[in-house]
Please model this.
Amino acid sequence: MPIHEKSLIRPENLVTHEHLEIEGVDVSGHWSTFITSRALTDYNEQMEEEIGALPGGEFIHRCWQCGSCTNSCTVNALNQDFNPRYWIYLIRLGFEDELLRDKDIIWQCVSCNKCTYACPRDVNPEGVMKATAHWLELKGHTERKPSMTFDEIFADQVFATGKIEDGLVLRQFFKHTKQSLFQDWLIALVRGLAMRLPIGLLMKFGLATLFQPRTRGWRRASAAIAEYVDERKAADRRALRLDAQGAE
Ligand code: SF4
Ligand code: SF4
Model:
């Protein structure tokens, strides 16, 4: 399947000659633009299977490369390098290194789902973008960001108690990311709340942060969620063969 868009050829792979003559024919300037040949050593023939096994990626095999997803994409309108159709093409062919060149923008999908509505093959490109971002994280291709720590603390608290205590989430987030609690914006926020909210409510917030109350009857729900999360993580690791790699 050839790539037709010139914009997708990396500038370093394009070679032009000011003066070039081939067999007596002058092909200088525009006509002498060549794409340098290269040997692919980065082929991952399991990539489509791996991303297809993650939530959202299930229908990637249906893609017929029409480009409707990219044409309708909110982020592509701002940055033409954000190209779901092209990434699906790379994933299906297993061009892992080529995909990794865009790893810092794939996560920028804003989940608007315009691509999903435009797709004639029900590929769910938005889901594929999520699965690809997840795949990058599981494979260790993206560095750990503070937002990942925040997500884990937030989710752990919901799973454990069925509630969100904002103060506790913030405290744990600052502790795990080694940040001081005494940040200007936080001090201003607490001052603002202290001036506006009734003292009884403030005390309730403070006590909840200390004692972490649970939603009534949450214990069974918490156990069921924990079981599901463990199963899901194990399935993801199996799909990406991460345990087998660790054992080698
Ligand atoms: S969901 Fe993501 S990939 Fe789809 S149109 Fe919106 S920004 Fe683009
Ligand atoms: S719109 Fe659907 S079928 Fe068309 S390129 Fe995008 S994912 Fe593939």
Notes: DSSP finds 13 helices and four strands in the chain. The CA atoms of residues 44 and 94 lie 5 Å apart. The chain has three domains: 6-35, 47-138, 146-215.
